[in-house]
Amino acid sequence: MTAITATLVKELRDKTGAGMMDCKAALTEVKGDIESAIDWLRKKGITKAANKAGRIAAEGLIGVTAKDKAGAMVEVNSETDFVARNEQFQDLVRNIASLAPKADSDVAKLLAQTYPGKSTTVEHQVKEAVATIGENMSLRRTVAMSVGEGHVAEYVHNRVADGLGKIGVLVAIESKGDKAALATFGRQLAMHIAAHVPSAAAVTAEALDPALVERERAIYAEQAKASGKSAEIAAKMVEGRLRKEFFQQVVLMEQTFLGPGSDGKATVAQALKAAEKTAGAPIKIAKFARYALGEGIDKKDEDFAAEVAKAVGKR
């Protein structure tokens, strides 16, 4: 029997584009014969999946799971929105999300976990889905959070099925207060975040990326300088604009709360104080995460007519 060396695995990978573990499995199955291993991969649809890997996948679904004190979220991308309505794809995202709490926000760990009801990994199952459904797919990101005492709330916007949608939010609140009150406030806060919070936001101003704050400060300073005001007045103008324009946009506690019963004036910080009275204990917003499907992915602007003309011109 031919030894399954790293060199042999690499050779098969170079020829097929399949993953290292799939290549090793194929070579092991056919006792080291490269050509037979290629056929084995083709029969499994794995090389077909590898050929699709270069295509942009910016659609798909956000999967969210949360129960009591722990929760997790994933983004699994596909090429088209049509696939997001496919029950097989929805089951894939839902099952991956169910494993995410144990992955510690690490995509590699999540991909390496055993897929529910299978003896193979999540990574392998994604490739199987690519081959079966016929579109490039990828597990793009994941986040998990938990609290010792309190509640982890979730919210899914543009919901297509239970725990699946286009925008997902997790928010962890720490408190010894009434569980029902915490769950209610957590849900309201998650809905607010879905509607009003950009991805670069933070719970407090101190938690913002200092480089981001300095960038905004520099812009306001340049504008204040152009106004011709004195240095002292200009400095006050800059800090005032940072607080009223920037922080109120990206600092959760300083935003106007959009929850039920809001008067359109109260901030999240003030809503939290009111929730503390209902819960009967202090509440701390420990962490939150908001995933919007496809955010940050560069999508190709394709001109279909031009593509057809180009294809016809080659004949």
Question: What does this 3D model show about the protein?
Answer:
With about 325 residues, this protein is α+β, with helices and mostly antiparallel strands. The protein folds into 3 domains: about 5-50, Orthogonal Bundle (Helicase, Ruva Protein, domain 3); about 60-205 and about 250-290, Tetrahydropterin Synthase, Chain A; about 210-250, GTP Cyclohydrolase I, Chain A, domain 1 (Orthogonal Bundle). It has 13 helices and 7 strands. The protein has helices at about 5-15, 20-30, 35-45, 45-50, 80-85, 85-100, 105-110, 120-135, 180-195, 210-225, 230-250, 270-280, 305-315; strands spanning about 60-65, 70-80, 140-145, 150-155, 165, 165-175, 285-290. The strands form 2 sheets. A 4-stranded antiparallel sheet has the order 3-2-1-5. A 3-stranded antiparallel sheet has the order 4-6-7, with helices on one face. A hairpin with a 2-residue loop joins strand 1 and strand 2 (about 70-80). Helix 10 packs across helix 11 (about 230-250). The longest helix has 20 residues, at about 230-250. The chain is elongated, with a radius of gyration of 25 Å. The two termini are about 50 Å apart. Mean pLDDT is about 85; it is low at about 300-305 and about 305-315.
The CATH superfamily of the largest domain is known as Elongation factor Ts, dimerisation domain
Helix-strand topology string: HHHHEEHHHHEEEEHHHHEH
Give average pLDDT, whole number: 85
What is the β-strand count? Answer: 7
Largest sheet: 4 strands, antiparallel
Q: Tell me, briefly, the overall form.
A: elongated
Per CATH, what is the topology of the largest domain?
Tetrahydropterin Synthase, Chain A
